[in-house]
Amino acid sequence: MGVPWDDSRRAFTDAARWFVGTAALVGDRWSRPGLGEWDVRALVGHTSRSLLTVETYLARPASTVEVASAGDYFRTTRAAAADPAVAARGRDAGAALGSDPAAAVAEIAARVLPLVEARDGTELLTTIAGGMRLADYLPTRTFELAVHTGDLATALGAPLDVPATAAAQALGLVTDLAVAEGHAGPLLLALTGRTGLPSGFAVL
Question: 47 pLDDT exceeds 60?
């Protein structure tokens, strides 16, 4: 999925700001159920890693491209995403946000967004999946921010006001994954009201 760098950067920024704004709505509900085994604090902690990994990986330049696209990144990391360590990292990240998690999230975004704004997308960085161009990695973070802020909004009973830029990029990515894995037919029929999706249907 080729996305112009300026559009990708805008989608990431909009998704990050939606996350910051939604986290600000939590109030005293940090211990209420968030997603699966995570409470709201752990869900916010996990989501904050979509910002923090950009900062971390930019500080770890790569010499070669090993993962050529956002879709390839998700295919490469699919098994790792199911590891119990992911849930533990979410809880740890939530705890690391300290006594005022919403303020911590806002500070992280204020630190990371200018780092992205200062780049042109050609930078090579070392991700958990291998060397990637920033322009190819950033859509994976926009996707995670959009989906998990949606999870957070749902947990809080807040509107699912996904920014249009982030929604378009996230839906484009998940559509690419569905097509690549032979799931386009069921998805097309469901989205046009012909039938529901099979139980347990997912592309990630």
Answer: yes
Cα 145 from Cα 143, distance rounded (Å): 5
Which tokens belong to 16? 């990050």
- How big is the CA angle at 51 (ends 28 and 7), to the nearest 5 degrees? 120
Do 73 and 136 form a contact (C-beta atoms < 8 A)? yes
H helix intervals, the chain:
5-23, 40-58, 70-81, 84-96, 101-117, 134-156, 164-180, 184-191
- 3-class secondary structure, 61: strand
* DSSP label of 124: E
Q: Is the pLDDT at 1 greater than 60, yes or no? A: no
Residue whose C-alpha is closest to residue 68's, from 1, 146, 147: 1
Is 196:187 a contact under the CB 8 Å cutoff?
Answer: no
Helix (H) / strand (E) element for 35: namely strand 33-35
Using CA atoms of 41, 46, 51, 52 in order, give the dihedral in degrees to the nearest 10.
Answer: 100
Is the pTM of the predicted complex or chain greater than 0.85?
yes
SS3 call for 200? coil
Give the chain's domains with CATH numbers: 5-163 (1.20.120.450)
Strand partners, 35: 38
**Could you tell me the two tokens for 174?**
């998940």
DSSP letter assigned to residue 197: P
